[in-house]
Amino acid sequence: MTLHVSSDAAAQTSTGDAHVDLPPVVDCHAHIFQQDMPLSSNAWTRTDYSFTADDYLALLDAYGIHFGVISGLSISGFYNDYMISELRKHKRLRGTAIVSPATDRYSLERMREDGIIGIRLQLARMTELPDFRSEEYNLLFRRVRDLDWHVHVAIEGPSLPPVLDALEESGVKVVIDHFGHPDPKLGVNCPGYKAILSAAERGNVWVKLSGGFRLLGTAAWRTDPDGDADKIADTIANHLVANMGTERLLWGSDCPFVGYEGRITFDYALERLRRWAPKPEDRWRLSQTALKLYFG
């Protein structure tokens, strides 16, 4: 598949001038949807508006960002149909799909042709997790591995270690959402966060610097009105950059900020990126990591 890269993106990918402060080349976490899409039985919210691929691409163009990665929409469960239809049209986009563990290889191969590059395990807010060492998941993960895809995981940090253990055993590449969503009271001492750092040393794990504003609002811990999600995210991000390096990190806007509409903006998301990776050369490397993982 031939990709047409913007002039700014080409400047970052060809010359490698790490000191040129350009926009990120890839937004690694966003959602697109239509208002009337079906909801899963365990949807945690509902949207009363549409945010289409055209809306998203217009936003990327306004900020000079060339590529986008669409995350399967948790509240719509296995309904990936709209995302896939838009990936077919827009080669600047890739996506991760939420699928049944019984999905066969032929279906996954067709998804790959349409621009899907991984599966998403939406495990946040779950009180009981599936057995990821079961026969059906062993088959799914082997198919993901054979396709050279990754497993994109959304889960609260305290629940992450056993899931990460099972994924590592399967040999798949793993991308973890939202800083690994550590318990805000424990921060870098959260067991899930420590498990991420350990797994990253073994070379098959990436972490998204995205959705820092969500770190105080999950089912695992009530939103603390006196807490400071930005401060927690800054601390975790700086620790990740120092201890994992930008070769294992990805940036995502998380737009259109489902559940936080009117409170979070794209300008805010870019400003957080500059705080989390203040050196232009680090932001340049984040773009190279994203291009290699999603578009290589």
Q: Could you explain the architecture of this structure?
A:
Helix content is 39%, strand content 13%. It is an alpha/beta fold. An eight-stranded parallel β-sheet has the order 1-2-3-4-5-6-7-8, with helices on both faces. Helix 6 (160-170) runs parallel beside helix 7 (191-201). The longest helix is centred in the C-terminal third of the chain and has 16 residues, at 280-295. The protein is globular, with a radius of gyration of 18 Å. Mean pLDDT is 90; it is low at 1-7 and 219-223.
Task: Map the helices and strands.
Elements: H1 7-14, E1 26-30, H2 53-63, E2 67-71, H3 81-89, E3 93-97, H4 105-114, E4 116-122, H5 135-146, E5 150-154, H6 160-170, E6 173-176, H7 191-201, E7 205-209, H8 229-243, E8 249-251, H9 266-276, H10 280-295
Parallel strand pairs: 1-2, 2-3, 3-4, 4-5, 5-6, 6-7, 7-8
Helix pairs in contact: 6-7
